[in-house]
Write a structure and sequence with these properties.
The complex is a heterotrimer. Chain A has helices at 42-50, 92-102, 107-120, 136-149, 166-183, 194-200, 218-223, 228-233, and strands spanning 4-13, 16-26, 31-35, 57-62, 65-66, 77-80, 154-158, 186-191, 203-208, 211-216, 240-248, 251-254, 257-260, 268-273, 278-294, 298-305, 308-315, 325-330, 336-338. Chain A is an alpha+beta fold. In chain A, strands 6-7-8-3-9-10 form a six-stranded mixed beta sheet, with helices on both faces. A five-stranded antiparallel beta sheet of chain A has the order 13-12-11-14-19. A four-stranded antiparallel beta sheet of chain A has the order 2-1-4-5, with helices on one face. The longest helix of chain A is centred in the middle third of the chain and has 18 residues, at 166-183. Chain A starts with a strand and ends in a 10-residue tail after the last strand. Chain B has two domains: 2-40; 70-274, MetI-like fold. Chain B has helices at residues 2-40, 44-48, 61-68, 72-103, 109-120, 128-138, 144-168, 172-180, 185-214, 217-222, 229-235, 242-274. In chain B, helix 9 packs antiparallel against helix 12. Chain B is globular, with a radius of gyration of 24 Å. By secondary structure, chain C is an all-alpha fold. Chain C has helices at residues 6-34, 43-50, 53-84, 90-98, 105-116, 121-128, 144-172, 176-184, 189-200, 202-217, 221-226, 234-243, 248-272, and strands at 35-36, 39-40. Chain C starts with 5 loop residues before the first helix and ends in a 9-residue tail after the last helix. The chains are: A alpha+beta, B mainly alpha, C mainly alpha. Chains in contact: A-B, B-C. At the B-C interface, helix 1, helix 4, helix 5, helix 6 and helix 7 of B face helix 1, helix 3, helix 4, helix 5 and helix 6 of C.
């Protein structure tokens, strides 16, 4: 059992508050992705869990044991670094076996586990090579194998794919998912790439300015963002926001159309819809087309709705050009509402 | 057509001038050393004779005279001892500070850097003057160890700055990876950092050796009976015959040739970052 | 491990060492210079300043620095740019050019003595070219210009390498793209040198000049080997006060003068070649 418990963790660098009051529970064998833009504190949180950074306050528990006072080596974790950190003066074999040798495992165990993890990562044929003789992708595999060979309770990954080129990243992403599912370890994975997060995660914690804004399954994060930040961060193009004016009771006027929404004391709230959840119809939001980008499968249409930029992903068969006036009809069950001031989601 | 022709000939002329200047500058460095070699490998009579031959006779009489000159061999040995102690001390004392500078942010770091840089901006050998008094008080006067301490002061700023830049060249992630793989700070250093840094450490140790080996002023001030080679030669400059000076000078130069060759790869790397 | 205390533990040895062998003697020198048997006094300075050799040695030291350092700077810059565009043989040329770095000032003095002494190679060459009939004494009080030239040449020969190393390292830090950009905008090689290399090299120039100027004021053994007592310099005077005259108060006073000049020049150089924050590479 390696459930991870993060209680009230905060981190302050000199005057800069990197993390404020983080609370998070990661269940055993869960694949948790920490997602956010650079500087949001995701890497700091990972390093606090690893023991490479000390929290200013708060507690970290792994498998029912409080570990925030322990050095990294006694936490039952293994880590994959962004630039791999493959030791250049050791062969691939020595790299993968390094942790086991440090644990003073019998040589037979070292041999067996190195070979097993190496074949799992498809690098058996590289065991005699040095890091300088490996490609970026191969180094990445060594770094993962080195972590897996430890058979850790928890594996921590800090943007492990960000230094690979696009094709290799896709390949490694799929492979990582398979290997980690098989290894049955709890995983925490830091990335700024939302696609990577969506495809890998059991749950995603979206972070912003040192706080976790939402921690939920990928589909939940996508469909029901807890705040405008999440809605705007995830999805490409991101969610559209339009100002909604109170009409009556539950009715809100949005760009010349009325929609039923939440009960709110505010006079204005935000109406939100994903770009792919609108269609051209007889009635709908008033839109003036500014720019059309044909992307093959879809048309990305950038319009002006209610004085704001609004993006729609439409069928590529449509004939739309800049200057056109359209009516964009949202799929009603996909409409979301946000408080203008708190930016938090509003329940309907 | 004609412009391109004149262009190629200018380029060719430029290249020729360039090559010639490189060769000339190499000669500027090498010829004086060669002339010293000629003198060293000539008999004492030839050294003082006129006109001089520009090729050596390969006569070892000068060197033999040097080896037999009273006090010379022990001065040579003293020089080696002092330089060796300086080398060890400056690395043992300096490298930890270099590591601290490259790996930690701590209060007073800038002040510490300033102290290090200040020492480099001072005519340090001058400080040997008051140390004579202090050394007499503690019984270190006229000892090899006492002089080595002063030479270590000379070498330490370099040792700190060079090791600082060497450690900075090793990604922190390598060390962190070792900690997540079961190392403590100490074993991580031992198994990951040290093997990677060793050639650079050797180079900066050699640099410290050269600093001490070449130092004249403090050596002359602080030693009386236990002269180092430089102090001995300096003191006997007025009285010793030419061939002795030249042989002594040659012995001083030889290690320099070897050392600079040994550390040549690091000379630039260490200044590249260290002058920040 | 407590990583708050660790860095202090690591710098402790150096700090202690420098306090003991740098700060302490520094204050000692200052103390010695300003005291004698009767207590606090300026007598040491008065004695030093009234010595007829002091103005000469001060003048000699400054003149030497003024003659040597600019030549070295120009030479080092030339060598550094030459090496920078070199493809073949760069390593060997750099090795040769940096050899003097490892050669002591005393050895350098002796090397140039071999050339300039009466039966030396310069006289031999002039003889074989038929310019002179018999060897003349080049390093005597009758030819002070020659003494100065010999010392200056020996210094230039010996200590250009340290500047070269610093400058080559500095040039290596300048990204190639800047030169390519300048070339695209039509800058000539000379313009590229003055508009890109020199400004971006400022931190290295700073280091190189400070180090070199300080060493220039410390000149001692080269002079001792080539000029002997003919050509007094400040450092040599310090030595002779200490040993020949056994007057450590005056030695300390001169030491302070050298220190003062060094600091003054360091400040001037740092100020003149200051790099604004944010304009660094």
């Amino acid at each position: 059992m390696a459930e991870i418990l993060i209680k009230n963790v905060a981190k302050k660098f000199e005057t800069y508050q990197a993390l404020s009051d983080i609370n998070l529970t990661i269940s055993d064998r869960e694949f948790m992705v920490l997602l956010g833009a650079s500087g949001c504190g995701k890497t700091t949180l990972l390093r606090i869990i690893a023991g490479l950074e000390t929290a200013t306050s708060g507690e970290v528990w792994i498998g029912g044991k409080r570990i925030d006072h322990l050095p990294p080596k006694d936490r039952g974790i293994a880590m994959v670094f962004q630039n791999y950190a493959v030791f250049p003066h050791m062969t691939v074999f020595e790299n993968i076996g390094f942790g086991l040798r440090m644990q003073k495992q019998p040589e037979a165990v070292v041999q067996e586990r190195v070979k097993r993890t190496a074949s799992l990562m498809h690098i058996e044929q590289l065991l005699g090579r040095y890091s300088g003789e490996l490609s970026g992708g191969q180094r990445q595999r060594v770094a993962v194998a080195r972590a897996l060979a430890m058979e850790p309770d928890v594996i921590l990954m800090d943007e492990p794919l960000s230094n690979l080129d696009a094709l290799l990243r896709l390949e490694m992403r799929a492979e990582l998912k398979g290997v980690l599912a098989e290894s049955e370890t709890t995983a925490i994975y830091v990335t700024h790439d939302q696609v990577e997060a969506m495809s890998l995660a059991d749950r995603i914690s979206v972070m912003n300015r040192g706080e976790i804004v939402q921690a939920a399954t990928p589909m939940e994060v996508y469909r029901n963002p807890a705040a405008e930040f999440v809605a705007g961060f995830i999805g490409n193009p991101p969610m559209n926001f339009v100002v909604a004016d109170r009409a009556e009771n539950h009715q809100w006027r949005v760009a010349g159309e009325h929609y039923s929404g939440p009960k709110s004391d505010e006079d204005q709230i935000h109406f939100a819809i994903r770009p792919e959840d609108v269609v051209i119809a007889e009635t709908g939001l008033d839109a003036r087309v500014r720019l059309v980008e044909p992307l093959g499968a879809h048309l990305h249409v950038t319009c002006d709705v209610g004085g704001r930029m609004f993006r729609a992903v439409l069928d590529s068969g449509l004939e739309v050009k800049a200057g056109d006036h359209l009516k964009l009809q949202p799929q009603l069950d996909r409409i979301r509402w946000f408080d203008k001031n708190t930016t938090k989601a509003l329940e309907v | 057509m004609s412009t391109s022709l004149s262009n190629t000939s200018t380029v060719r002329a430029g290249r020729w001038v360039y090559g010639a200047s490189v060769a000339l500058l190499c000669a500027w460095v090498l010829v004086p050393i060669y002339l010293l070699l000629v003198n060293t490998l000539s008999s004492p009579a030839a050294v003082s004779g006129f006109p001089k031959s520009f090729v050596p006779e390969f006569d070892t009489a000068s060197l033999e005279f040097f080896a037999g000159f009273s006090g010379m061999v022990s001065a040579l040995i003293n020089s080696i001892y002092v330089a060796a102690i300086t080398m060890v001390l400056s690395i043992v004392i300096g490298a930890p500070a270099g590591y601290a500078l490259s790996r930690f942010d701590f209060k007073g770091k800038e002040l510490f850097r300033l102290l290090i840089l200040l020492t480099r901006a001072f005519p340090l050998p001058l400080l040997a003057l008051p140390l004579t008094v202090m050394f007499i008080q503690v019984g270190l006067d006229d000892t090899i160890f006492g002089l080595a301490l002063v030479h270590t002061t000379l070498a330490i700023p370099f040792a700190v700055l060079i090791t600082f830049s060497l450690f900075s060249g090793i990604p922190v992630e390598l060390e962190e990876a070792s900690w997540t793989l079961g190392c403590t700070r100490l074993t991580g250093f031992r198994y990951v950092v040290l093997p990677l840094i060793l050639p650079g450490i050797t180079a900066s140790a050699i640099f410290a050796f050269v600093i001490s080996w070449n130092e004249v002023f403090a050596a002359a001030v602080l030693t009386i009976e236990n002269r180092t080679l430089t102090a001995f030669l300096l003191q006997n400059l007025d009285t010793s015959p030419l061939h002795l000076k030249f042989a002594g000078g040659f012995i001083l130069v030889v290690p320099a040739l070897v050392f600079i060759f040994a550390v040549r790869k690091y000379l630039f790397a260490m200044w590249g970052i260290a002058n920040r | 491990m407590n990583s708050n205390r660790l860095p202090y533990l690591l710098i402790l040895p150096v700090t202690l060492f420098l306090c003991l062998f740098f700060l302490y003697p520094f204050f000692q020198v200052a103390g010695q210079a300003f005291t004698n048997d009767q207590g606090l006094t300026l007598a040491n300075f008065e004695r030093v300043f009234s010595d007829w050799k002091f103005p000469i040695s001060l003048k000699n030291t400054l003149l030497l620095a003024a003659a040597v350092v600019p030549v070295q700077l120009a030479l080092a810059l030339l060598m550094a740019t030459m090496v920078n565009r070199m493809k073949k043989g760069r390593d060997i040329v750099l090795y040769i050019w940096t050899i003097p770095l490892g050669i002591s000032d005393l050895a350098a003095g002796i090397i140039w003595l071999a050339i300039f002494e009466q039966s030396g190679f310069l006289n031999s060459m002039m003889h074989s070219l038929g310019m002179i009939d018999r060897p003349t004494s080049l390093l005597s009080y009758k030819s002070m210009g020659m003494v100065f030239l010999a010392i200056a040449l020996a210094e230039i020969w010996r200590a250009t390498a340290i500047m070269l190393v610093i400058l080559v390292a500095g040039i290596g830090l300048i990204p190639k793209e800047y030169y390519e950009a300048a070339e695209v905008f039509g800058a000539s090689p000379w313009k590229r040198f003055t508009r890109i290399t020199l400004p971006l090299l400022r931190p290295s120039l700073q280091t190189a000049l400070v180090l070199r100027v300080i060493l220039a004021f410390e000149i001692f053994a080269v002079v001792a080997a080539l000029g002997g007592t003919l050509f007094p310099v400040l450092m040599g005077e310090t030595y002779s006060y200490q040993f020949d005259l056994l007057d450590s108060g005056s030695a300390a006073a001169i030491a302070l003068v050298i220190l003062g000049i060094s600091i003054a020049f360091t400040l001037v150089i740092l100020r003149a070649l200051r790099v604004p924050k944010g304009a660094q590479i």
